[in-house]
Amino acid sequence: MNIEAAEEHLVIVSDLHLGNPASSARTRLVAFLDHIRDTGASVCINGDGFDILQTSFSRLAADAIPVINRLKTLRADGCKIYYIVGNHDIVLEHFLEEWSLCRLSPFLNLRSGDRRIRIEHGHLYDPFFARSPTLYGIATHLARYALFAVPDTYELWASAQRRLQEARRRRVGRAGPADDTGHRRSLLLGSPYHEAASMILRRGFDAVVFGHTHLAEMVTLPEGVYANSGNWLSGASYVEITNGELVLRTWESPAV
Questions:
Q1: How far, in Å, CA of 11 to CA of 27, rounded?
Q2: CA distance linking residue 191 with residue 168, whole number of Å
Q3: Which residue, 20, 3, 246, is CA-closest to 146?
Q4: pLDDT tens digits for 71-96?
Q5: What distance in Å separates the CA atoms of residue 225 and residue 217, rounded to the nearest whole number?
Q6: C-alpha dihedral sign at 132, 160, 209, 4
Q7: Which is nearest to 251 in space by CA: 9, 23, 30, 7?
Q8: Under a CB-based contact definition with an 8 Å cutoff, are residues 13 and 43 in contact?
Q9: How many CB atoms lie within 10 A of CB 37?
Q10: Domain spans of the chain?
Q11: Phi, psi torsion values for 14, nearest 5 degrees
Q12: CATH number for the segment(s) 4-250
């Protein structure tokens, strides 16, 4: 399995959750992929692209087929497609390892410009998942029924995550002032994902990109840059890398 790549222009999206009743990604993602095709960038789906855990086969097929067809078009035009496995699509490892549409891997070590960038979904650093992956899986399966009744369950969960993260930051210390790139500098790390990113950065990487949390952010840590590409359940954020420079962006669908 090849985990090394070199790209001067790469777009990273995560947490599309295609097939999930809470996801509206399909209606916006096709137009977004057309835009990426025009720019000539390569694409990295950083985990939970297809939601195997919280869907039915018919719903997954309806959401996935138009997106897969667009990805095939990008590949035919010379675009490289990378797929990093997350916690909602981990079963893909068993039957997509030889999938000719994309390169499937648990993480990606990217060389862009003069920078080394680590890209991975980030679920391994989720305290709940790390402590009890079996219980986490059961809870995720049970949550699918709530999603059919209340599609904005993920928004409630994301809100709770934001409150918990801010409370933790207040406990360990206030964030410092923005630097000249506009990123918030964290003097003391208040997030397990920031802590994990710092650990990875100390291995010789210049930047780290996660997904999983559904919270789009870009933070300058003492060791380098941490970015999270957010989600496409209700949002449309992504990370764009050009010659090693990372920018967090939001896609706005063109008016019809």
A1: 19
A2: 7
A3: 20
A4: 989 999 989 999 998 775 666 655 55
A5: 11
A6: positive
A7: 30
A8: yes
A9: 18
A10: 4-250
A11: -150, 165
A12: 3.60.21.10
